[in-house]
Design goal:
Blueprint (H helix, E strand, L loop, with lengths): L4 E3 L6 E3 L43 E2 L2 E2 L4 E3 L8 E6 L5 E9 L6 H11 L7 H7 L11 E6 L11 E10 L2 E10 H19 L5 H4 L24 E3 L7 E7 L2 E11 L5 H11 L10 H4 L1 E5 L2 E9 L4 E9 L2 E9 L1 H16 L4
Antiparallel strand pairs: 1-2, 3-4, 5-6, 6-7, 7-10, 8-9, 9-10, 11-12, 12-13, 13-17, 14-15, 15-16, 16-17
Length: 355
């Protein structure tokens, strides 16, 4: 079930909008050139694609044209659509659309990441429930949050407010985001919501088919890796983003184990660690403290880096290695007590890895 709500942190009043949304399985996925680094979500590692991308975003979505003051931008990195809006006195707002697989994180992860970008404290899952209102429709919905905070680098002309829309189901996550000058974002919010609604109604056609993500590789052309997984880790179907997935449940709690691989180096270690930290409400760290947080694990001759991060309601054990021109990421994510119980099994899982 998806919801579509606007959450203003200043008064925490709930405004619900009704939006028509096509199911994600009917939408196209973003092409992701090998080695690209993501701008949405920020600091997400690059995703190997191989499919071509158009030079700029499509100029119309469904029967509703993009607002004339939205200037189409080149589709760099992982963006499927990209626009710039200019206001008075140098005010600007950036608008983007990207789709990711199941490894993109849940609504709470991403809302807290956006709050972190605005230098606001993370919210708990319980708090999030009070900020958004589920809206059941025949075709599903999206979650829209309206967040205000401190502008990055103190530049209020370029930052200070985020309106973000998130649609998630078992196939992956779609992100729509407008970030910029607070007053300009407020003025463009109605246009943004109409654009989100219109985009979801666009059927796959020849214009958008060039941006379709390739299907997950077959077993014969998948990068080869082997491991020994614990018997009580239940395998889940892989997705466009995940090489493999597992779940483990105990005493009513559930944890997620993921294996993700990308061509190239997968981004810098500090960027990846800060992305994971933001997902559980922790502040970013600087590169100077990186070595004090990272611990090694060895799987034969394979050297693996690990980091253990605990937030208020979630804990993440993450590991990564780079082999044969690819980056491999392994992550155990869940309630702190359950993650602590599963930590020895996760370490043994890492030690069993062989290429």
């Amino acid at each position: 079930m998806f919801c579509f709500a606007s959450c203003n942190r200043e008064n925490e009043q709930i405004k619900v909008y009704r939006v028509v949304k096509a199911p994600l399985e009917n939408s196209t996925e973003a092409a992701m050139p090998s080695g690209a680094t993501a701008s949405l979500p920020d600091n997400h590692p690059p995703v190997g694609g191989g499919a071509s991308m158009p030079a700029t975003a499509p100029q119309t979505t469904s029967n509703v044209p993009n607002p004339p003051n939205w200037q189409a931008q080149p589709l760099a990195q992982m963006r499927k659509a990209s626009f710039l809006v200019k206001g008075e006195n140098g005010a600007v707002a950036d608008i983007s659309f990207v789709t990711l697989g199941a490894a993109a994180g849940n609504v709470l992860d991403n809302v807290n990441r956006w709050l972190g970008q605005l230098k606001q404290p993370a919210v708990t899952e319980e708090k999030l429930k009070s900020m958004v209102q589920p809206l059941s429709t025949a075709r599903g919905g999206v979650t829209v949050v309206d967040l205000s905070g401190e502008p990055e680098n103190g530049d209020a002309n370029k930052d200070g407010r985020i309106v973000g829309a998130i649609a998630t189901d078992e196939t992956g996550t779609a992100f729509f985001k407008m970030r910029g000058n607070a007053a300009l974002v407020a003025a463009e919010k109605e246009n943004f919501l109409k654009w989100v609604s219109a985009w979801r109604a666009v059927p796959t056609n020849t214009e958008t088919s060039n941006t379709t993500m390739p299907a997950p590789p077959t077993n014969s052309d998948k990068p080869q890796i082997k491991w020994d997984a614990p018997d009580d880790w239940a395998p889940a179907a892989p997705s466009a983003m995940r090489y493999a997935s597992f779940t483990v449940e105990k005493d009513g709690e559930k944890a997620d184990i993921s294996v993700v691989t990308f061509s190239g180096d997968g981004g810098s270690d500090v960027d990846n660690i800060n992305r994971w930290r933001q997902q559980i409400g922790l502040p970013a760290i600087g590169a100077e403290v990186l070595t004090s947080l990272v611990a090694p694990v060895h799987a034969g001759e394979v050297h693996i880096h690990t980091v253990d991060m605990s937030g208020a309601s979630a804990r993440v054990l993450a590991a990564w290695t780079r082999q044969g021109g690819r980056a491999w990421f392994f992550k155990l994510n869940g309630p702190p007590v359950l993650v602590e119980q599963e930590k020895p099994k996760f370490v043994a899982f890492l030690q069993s890895i062989r290429f």
